[in-house]
Amino acid sequence: MANHPPLAISTTALRKSYGRKLVLDGIDLDVAAGSVLALLGPNGAGKTTMVQIMSTLIRPDSGRVLVGGHDAIADPGAVRRLIGVTGQNSAVDNLLTGTENLSLMADLMHLSRVEGRRRVVGLLERFELVDAARQPVATYSGGMRRRLDLAMTLVGDPRIIFLDEPTTGLDPRSRRTMWQIIRNLVADGVTILLTTQYLEEADQLADQVALLDHGRIIAQGTPDELKRRIPGGHIRLQFTHLSSLEAAARALGVSTSDTSTSDTDALTLDVPGDGGVRTLRYLLAELDRADIDVAGLSVHTPDLDDVFLTLTGTTEEGALR
Amino acid sequence: MSYALRDSSTMLRRYLLHMRRYPVMTFMVIMIPAVFLLLFVFVLGGTLGAGLGGDRSAYANYVAPGILLLAIAGAGQGTAISVAMDMSEGIIARFKTMAIFRPSVLTGHVLGSVVQTVVGLAIVVAIAIGVGFRPTATPVEWLAATGVLAMVSFAVIWVCLALGLVTKSVEAASNLPMPLLLLPFLGSGFVPTDSMPTAVRLFAQYQPFTPVMETLRGLLLGTAIGNNGILAVAWCAAMTVGGFVWSVKLYNRDPRP
Predict the structure, then answer these.
(1) CB contact, 8 Å: A81 with chain B?
(2) What is the ipTM of this complex?
(3) Measuring CA to CA, which residue among B63, B64, B232 is closest to residue B154?
(4) pTM reported for the whole predicted model
């Protein structure tokens, strides 16, 4: 704890409401320079509002926002010079071609003609848009559009990037491409704050995850730290008869009275364990020795879904209501 | 602030590209006044010309300034629609988070619309001359008339820009500027205001388009201008300042979720 890395983004007691609806209820958030923070939460948790405030698009009702050492409320111009934003809604000009969109950004970044041209060509290559460069964006696929969107954000070579749900609506292949692009940015030392409702995405990309629910941060830490906060993994056994379930419970020393580990209607029994080969071999040997028929077996490692469920006490769908 | 000109011209280039990709709007700017011109000269022109103590070609001369103002109001409607369409796009949020001259999105729209309008007006004037419009203007008067047209276009477009920003939908943006399209009719554009009943005449004499049309008529056809020139400049200045201040205020509002 002695060496704190410098902070790229820091918010203190951020509050925002729309009318009588409280959207952000006192958010404190720190993002270390060169790291990736994922703001994870269901729809309506306040993720987009957070990004809009940190990227100077809207002002909070109260609280403090520092981005790259500048006060985003008092001096938004200084913040805008440092950041790049890829919003949730596609921020590309549909009537222009890919090249024209990127050139527009180069002009607005006040780059020289030669430098602008160089960056536009470089980004088209890097984001595999060379073939479509002269096509109007209206003809682009969702994945291409998202890549162009991010490429436009990068024309100015920002050191702090906000990505609001960068992979929502993308097919799995495009999502993987986007993840790789984001990892490459991180490797270049860029600070990234991204929002996502995909737990896997936060797990894949983020150094730190902040769980946002109803305008509050309910947990924050590395993906591993968060996973450690919930009960460990388990092996789920499926039976065809209640008698074999009970026999197995006796053989393995697991109680059948605890409804969180044993379901006598679905005929499943959860045995705590990490799902390693040694554990499985032991488990199967014990069941074999007791001559118990097992219909199925599945290994469950804790994921961020479990974290969310444990901490909010609601499912994602539940949080929507 | 130092980037005001550079960013405005970048945005102007964006809108000129839009016009090339989406020429329907420019076509509309020319079509509406052209159709009205042909209707009024070839269908109504004989009778209306006789009412003025002349013939069809005399009416073509009389109606030309009104048609030009109709073209400008139509162009303003186009501006309102295109800015409302633009504001619904995610790229506006991107512009707002960039270190650029903030109103450049607006100035780009206005300059683009002015260019579009001037092109439209040139074509409408050419059609008018084709159907009997015979201006008597000297080159200096032509220059002055062009200046008046540019000035009133600029003013109407700023007002329409605000109307496009204040609406929530593209449909509403196309309806709000409608009254402007009526102003040439409820003024001296199509018939002299003396022929109207008192209430209508009072409105017609004191609304902004009438002094503009009278000034154009004076410059192009040699009729008396009187104090209409001053009034035209004053109205245009007021509309420009009002439209600009309102537009910037609307643009700087926080976007609602």
Answers:
(1) yes
(2) 0.86
(3) B232
(4) 0.82
